[in-house]
Write a structure and sequence with these properties.
The structure is a homodimer of 404-residue chains. Chain A has 15 helices and 12 strands. Chain A has 404 residues and is α/β, with parallel strands linked by helices. A 7-stranded mixed sheet of chain A has the order 2-8-7-6-5-3-4, sandwiched between helices. In chain A, strands 9-10-12 form a 3-stranded antiparallel sheet. A two-stranded parallel sheet of chain A has the order 1-11. The first copy, chain A, starts with 6 loop residues before the first strand and ends with a helix. Residues 324-337 of chain A have low confidence and may be disordered.
Chain lengths: 404, 404
């Protein structure tokens, strides 16, 4: 039953590096570069130039000035630096986020709530933050608001311009984690009105182990760990020169055909949604039907377990996920806890009839054939699982009784 | 006056990656790996295997079990995790370090001193911690003691086994930053009696952007930032798969010829020391003459500025440093502050007659020819600077007066 097929629909959790990124990293590793802080000799100066060039390329992707970017080890560190680093430097602010944020945002409440006013906003059944509820919270308390551009698990994209308008009108600061959205849509921090933005290298066809935080010039941050004076003293530690170079190259590679890939993936994603709607019995889609990431389709199926469907998909060469990989290795105390995604709970998916959701997330390397393959194979796998499902069996017996 | 010569004596600040490391990273980047947390499909499982294999290789280098290693973004983060992470989980302990530690250790006092008893130990003129003064501090307070295996700026290696014996006898925990020593000497955490050990990828012929913290199984740590459950929940964030793979390969590459390189570099270093002692006027060596890193020679020269000598060396193709590159971009308020290294001050180098020190640090790629070139070129550069030195001019006039 194993197959040679390799149809990767888990781009939300990691993408494969662009060949230009791989070449760049190889070049940098072979270049006998010094430590960028070693300003006194040519090997150190050359390393500093590699970092500077990458900073320009990453900044260009989000329409920012190079000096507004701080390189980090990834999105998790960038999210911690944005929120805890901001609140260390600006302790008079509160902290607001939604109940569908990534754990690297949401869990910061644990350490912040003793010193800072914290609020968690509910989202609606599509995963959207209600502008009114945000306005109400901010009226009472200037805050740093952290809302991701898009949710990885259900694909919903926030109305970020509306949100940023509310934040700035109330003297508040907007941080947005763009990990899920970057690489799929165009981002402009000025147009969007974002003060702090998190980027992840490995989610935009760059390498893992590197990320960046955009910091609007008007904002003061404190570092979250101690050390040397790298990255304007905000992020100590010798720079990840090959990783940073790779992330720069990834942003450079995105530039040319961002719009065309966005349109192509949006059309293919919409088409897949429609196809599954018609061909998969008991399907329930999650997230907003229009305000969503291009090429992202997420759903759960009544009577069957998400995990089982993922496994069957995997055995047929289709790699998908149950939302964010980051939550998949949480140590759950029991099976119920393991199944209950905080995102699904937040959008009101009933935990008694939903046993796990599926996220199909495409990227620029996915072809129309990949989408067609999923369309052709998925309905059959669902049917197979339905025949083995005690819950479906009960349902059918019940139905026969009622119908009969 | 520029030259094509490339004689790299700044290995203490970064090393060049081993060719096997470069190949491994290239392979990993090309392998279409998933997110290691995506346990449900083959691409994710393959990524997890890459991380597991690397963990075994890094562990083998320090004689530890694989599950005792936490991968980080580098030594700075590992030092912060070791100390702040330990004290978060064990708030009844104090914190002790020496006055020649790296800023990523020393500066943690700023955030810790409000909640924890902190002590800074003076070192002697060689940079060695006095066992009695450590014993005295620990008698009053169980502590986490952080002392680096070797100091990057002056090369001195602590008597770590004596120190660990004192720590364990007093119910204290020993953390050691091995950034400067690793790759140059053999390390065995059990023989050395170290509870927490920091390793840096780019200092052992691996890539930048990755490090590791060894954590003795008996020790509980708290994470220093929030997020997913990666690295046993101690270090959240998607794993730096290519960087970790590169660091694993670097450790694997060290194994075979560690001892022979250590002996070769020790002999060449001692020989360089003797040669400079005879050929360089007004030379003052720093650090311990025997208890020091192999291939590491550090000194300052009366009447001349360290920075000028570094510059002339660089123009002649010799790349050296003024100790730790991490301190070279500190924002100093005035020139005095810029010159005064906290390490030189700690070992009693007189700041009125010393204007900056030089660190020549060799690595396994340095040849005997490299050492001979330094021996041949350095004395002449010192003489050239002496002829331009007002201080030397005064000294000579004074001498003539006294002698005449």
């Amino acid at each position: 039953m194993q197959t040679e097929k390799f149809v990767y629909f888990d781009n939300i959790n990691t993408t494969f590096p662009d060949p230009r990124v791989v070449r760049k990293i190889d070049e940098v590793l072979n270049f006998r570069l010094g430590n960028p802080s070693a300003h006194i000799h040519s090997a150190g100066i050359a390393a500093g130039k590699v970092v500077d060039e990458a900073r320009e390329k990453v900044a260009a992707y989000i329409g920012a000035a190079p000096e507004t970017l701080i390189f980090t080890s990834g999105a998790t560190e960038a999210n911690n630096l944005a929120i805890t680093g901001f609140l260390k430097a600006n302790p008079e602010f509160g902290f607001v986020c939604s109940n569908i944020e990534h754990f690297s945002v949401l869990n910061q409440i644990r350490s912040l709530r003793n010193s800072v006013k914290t609020s968690i906003l509910d989202v609606d059944s599509y995963g959207l933050v209600e502008p009114d509820s945000l306005e109400k919270v901010l009226k009472n308390n200037r805050s740093i608001v952290s809302l991701s551009l898009a949710n990885p698990e259900i694909g919903t994209m926030q109305d970020i311009e509306k949100i940023s308008e509310i934040c700035s009108r109330n003297g508040s600061i907007l941080h947005s984690d763009a990990t899920a959205a970057a690489g799929l849509i165009e981002i402009d921090v000025n147009k969007m009105g974002i003060d702090l933005l998190t980027l992840s290298g490995h989610n935009i066809y760059g390498p893992a182990g590197v990320g960046a935080l955009y910091v609007n010039k008007k904002i003061r941050l404190a570092s979250i760990f101690e050390g040397g004076n790298q990255e304007s003293g905000i992020r100590p530690g010798t720079e990840n020169v090959p990783g940073i170079a790779g992330m720069g190259e990834a942003c450079e590679a995105l530039k040319g055909d961002m719009k065309s890939h966005e349109k192509r993936l949006r059309d293919l994603g919409n088409d897949l949604w429609k196809s599954l709607q018609e061909s998969v019995r008991f399907v329930n889609f999650t997230g907003h039907p229009e305000k969503r990431l291009p090429g992202h389709v997420s759903f759960w199926v009544e009577h069957i377990e998400g995990e089982s469907l993922l496994l069957l998909l995997s055995m047929n060469g289709v790699m998908a996920s149950s939302g964010s990989a980051c939550s998949s290795n949480l140590k759950a105390k029991d099976e119920d806890e393991l199944m209950a995604s905080h995102v699904l709970a937040a959008v009101g998916v009933p935990s008694d009839i939903c046993s796990g959701s599926i996220t199909l997330s495409a990227g620029r390397y996915n072809t129309e054939e990949d989408f067609n393959y999923v369309k052709s194979v998925l309905p059959g796998l669902v049917e197979k699982l339905l025949t083995m499902s005690p819950s479906y069996d009960d349902y059918m017996k019940n139905k026969e009784t009622t119908d009969g």
